[in-house]
Amino acid sequence: MNGTFITLEGIDGAGKSSHVSWISEFLQSQGKEVVSTREPGGTPLSEKLREMLLSDAMDLETETLLMFAARREHLSQVIKPALARGAWVVCDRFTDASFAYQGGGRGLDKSRLTQLEQWIHGDCQPRLTLLFDVPCEVARQRIALANRHLDRFEQEQAQFHDRVRHAYLDRAAAHPERFRVIDGTRTLEEIRVQLEQILTQLQP
Ligand code: TYD
């Protein structure tokens, strides 16, 4: 793989989505080919799976397998071809979200997730994972202020999001070589300065 795979993670309301387009534009301004995408989603089939995942109640194993089914399709149709031709892939969520939400949030055994991770993309891991971290109360306030329809995950209780947050932080501690934890309570400007430093230091 010649390209560079970057993922963004964080609890709902951590603010990561507002940074995806900025990161893509920054990298493009440096002359890179950038593929900006998201999970669950990123292909027509995976977007259909996303719709179901965000709205329909389902068994935890079903939810997990559909997340990985969407991911497999996304990897084979979009991520791997882009990396093979040397592009930079900026992906809003990836497998760390499965460890955080299905594992930490819903309590699925981590060994199951590790098996799926190995099976579906043992040969392809992000080079850099930006974890936007905010206390759950801050995230909940932001979501409430947005005043829009909440998906199945956003509707979960505060304790759920607290478990998701801690699962993310545990995952960051376990993989310090690729994780960078960003304090999502800082201003947009401060975060952009930090992101620019991180991206500039990242060797292709
Ligand atoms: P999100 O990426 O936050 O989209 P938006 O910014 O439009 O709300 O929504 C995706 C949701 O899917 C999010 O709540 C986390 C959840 N999710 C999982 O539970 N497991 C996964 O593996 C992935 C990729 C996402």
Number of helices: 8
Can you count the beta strands? 5
Q: Residue share in helices?
A: 55-70%
Radius of gyration: 16 Å
Strand order within the widest sheet? 2-3-1-4-5
Q: What shape does the CA trace take?
A: globular
Structural class: alpha/beta
Order of H and E elements = EHEHHEHHEHHEH
Distinct bound molecules? thymidine-5'-diphosphate
Task: Explain what the structure shows.
The chain has 204 residues and is α/β, with parallel strands linked by helices. Helices cover 56% and strands 14% of the residues. It contains 8 helices and 5 strands, in the order βαβααβααβααβα. It has helices at 17-29, 44-55, 60-84, 95-105, 110-121, 136-146, 158-174, 188-201, and strands at 4-10, 34-38, 88-92, 128-133, 179-183. The chain has a 5-stranded parallel sheet, with helices on both faces. The longest helix is centred in the middle third of the chain and has 25 residues, at 60-84. The mean pLDDT is 96.
